[in-house]
Amino acid sequence: xxxxxxxxxxxxxxxxxxxxxxxxxxxxxxxxxxxxxxxxxxxxxxxxxxxxxxxxxxxxxxxxxxxxxxxxxxxxxxxxxxxxxxxxxxxxxxxxxxxxxxxxxxxxxxxxxxxxxxxxxxxxxxxxxxxxxxxxxxxxxxxxxxxxxxxxxxxxxxxxxxxxxxxxxxxxxxxxxxxxxxxxxxxxxxxxxxxxxxxxxxxxxxxxxxxxxxxxxxxxxxxxxxxxxxxxxxxxxxxxxxxxxxxxxxxxxxxxxxxxxxxxxxxxxxxxxxxxxxxxxxxxxxxxxxxxxxxxxxxxxxxxxxxxxxxxxxxxxxxxxxxxxxxxxxxxxxxxxxxxxxxxxxxxxxxxxxx
Length: 355
Ligand code: G3P
Ligand code: CA
Fold this sequence. Notes:
16 helices; binds SN-glycerol-3-phosphate
């Protein structure tokens, strides 16, 4: 899409939204020290570099993202690490290094073992048009290493948007996270850290450990979450196209969606992170939970809306028009350009940082 059209879509969406309930979102965000609208770099700049690795986070930071998004897990020897999937086979060479444990959870590995894995070559194979030889030498990061990156550029100082991933596997991770953030001096500035989880129990534990830190309850449609009108999960559906299945899913009724807003509010969340359907579907396209009435109901309850995960200008425009307050994106530069905020060329920045 041409740059001028992107800008036009962006301005139209922002203009329309600001005439209505966006004003509420803006003041809700300001009260928490959260930028409006927020640019949340999903697993770093993960369109241009392997997700959750050093170049992905360096690039997201230097592009000017408001937040570096990360999924938190814990090693067998108790170190907080940043990995999205429950196991390591999609994003590393675990099958070659540890064949007998290739499908074991992250928690089955020590930090030293995780650090032997190649966390970048999979990206070069999956996306040859964005491959770089330097990506084959990347390793899994600890939380502290991501904090180091976030602190590393005096001109660009993103916050952290931290998800407790599969938290039932990691008892006490919420308190441990608090200790690390406190030790690093990250809990003193409002809105510098946002905490997120799909898990109601983890939300309660995060709220207990860090009552002043803004928290987001992530929303999705499924039999263990917002009850679907279809009564089915994808796994039970017999279908083969997950995105097409997800695109047809919706809450069983309005009351069910509103019930989850109340769960978020009562659990101490200051907002929700709903899923969205992408215009082109594909991976990371889910059920549409950002319909205008949903966002309006959230704002009426004093809840911000940060939608996951959109990468296309038309999807950004639709989401803003529907009234969201921030967007998780794998393409932080594209979203910054959409908002007409200053940024730089992704490829040139990767070159500059030695990748
Ligand atoms: O954390 C928001 C978004 O990242 C949720 O989806 O599966 O990418 O963690 P996921
Ligand atoms: Ca996440």
